[in-house]
Amino acid sequence: MIAPGRRRAIAGAILVYVTLILTLQIFLVSVAAEGFLAGEPALAWSATALSAGLAGVAALFYRFLRDE
Amino acid sequence: MTDDPIWRRDFPYTAEGEEEVTRREFARYLVLASGAFAGGSGLVSLWASLRRVNTGAPTPVVELSAVAVGGSHLFGYPTDDDPAILVRVDEDLLLAFSQKCTHLGCVVFWSPAERQFECPCHEGFFSLDGRPIAGPPERPLTRIDVEVRDGMVWALGAGAHGEAT
Q1: Ramachandran region of residue B135, left (φ > 0), alpha (ψ -120 to 50) or beta?
Q2: What is the reported pLDDT for B50?
């Protein structure tokens, strides 16, 4: 059983992580756009793969937060 | 509980509960936004993979004899709305590029004295092979393949930026 105060701290920490992930996602979209403009699909796909991975991590964080 | 305001009875959440719900909801929106960004990146990547960069059908450009050695000729490729430039570097070497500067799309021109392409808008400079050498541009000019057939210069298609095919 997690104490309410600790639960709030965990929720806040997860929120910070998810916010950081979202910031990285914005950067990765710009990288994908750069790959598009440069005619380098490999760069865009690399950014997409990383972006999808981060979205998965964010979803896991949210699931933990929801179930916790 | 009878002293509680009506809104408290209607919305019986404690302050702690409200905070947790708010955080979870906020986290949910952030996760959804994160997924949306990933999806957007995927669409951009798909578009980058499927589009054909400035390709075009073989098209006659100009008689070779009409272009002096060291001189240039302007034409449209793959359509008349796409400015391109042909440079006759020496007797046998012809190079052609899209005229659109890879910085902000201004039209570049050939400088015979400096043997380089120059973009007057923001002072961008490209080498003979289209690679950026100074100024704000970071990507090379889009190369257009050319070939001489029976004294006529033909544009055969273009690759990605700077791709020599």
Answers
A1: left
A2: 86
